[in-house]
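Appendix B. Chain record.
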Amino acid sequence: MGQRGFWDEQQRVAKLKEKKPVLQRLSESIPWDSFRPLLDKGYVHERKTNAGRKRIDPLILFKMLVLQQLFNLSDEELEFQVNDRRSFEEFVGLGVMNSIPDATTVAFFRERLRKAEVIEELFEMFEAYLRSQGLQARGGQIIDATLVPVPKQRNTREENKEIKAGRLPEGWDENPDRLQQKDLDARWTKKNGISYYGYKNSICIDVDHGFIRRYAVTPANIHDSQLLPRLLDPENEHDFVWADSAY
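Structure tokens predicted for this chain:
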């Protein structure tokens, strides 16, 4: 087999575009700049300075969050897939010469939007655009949950007791650097006889398109049955629901 040249690569890209995959359709049909006013709210309290590295376009990071939701990817898997898949790379607006934002950058960006209280509104806007493109939720819905382990905390028994009660252990607020390293929301749970510490990512997927329509992130100890009302999508055109016995 001969070595591929520039012309071969051009032909390959052209063939991919001829197939009109869903991501290209979304890239061309959704007015992405309409998300910018909400995205900018995540940077309202950012310190203005010319020092340091140039800020990554928040629209690129938001498109990465969209991919994460549509395909149920962890932060690390998202970073890998955008590096590995040309369709993902082009969807977020990066070329082969651009560096891909890493998993930590994505996590910080999501937290920035959460603190600005705009993340739900952003995805509601995106869902509305999906429906306007004829990508309504159809075929029924699949409900599922994934445990997301996080590093175990090295706390005393008394500190854990305070955290479970929703209180900050004594003295923690006096050391902001230490507090930044502490996860106050993760919890223990047991599955198939194995203990896990972390969170639970619960999702609702429409059967027709395979898109994640709704999701909920909770501490790992929250029972699946409590999440069903939050996950069921009333917009789905079919009544069928697939879920395991926990729901």
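Further analysis of this model is presented in Appendix C.
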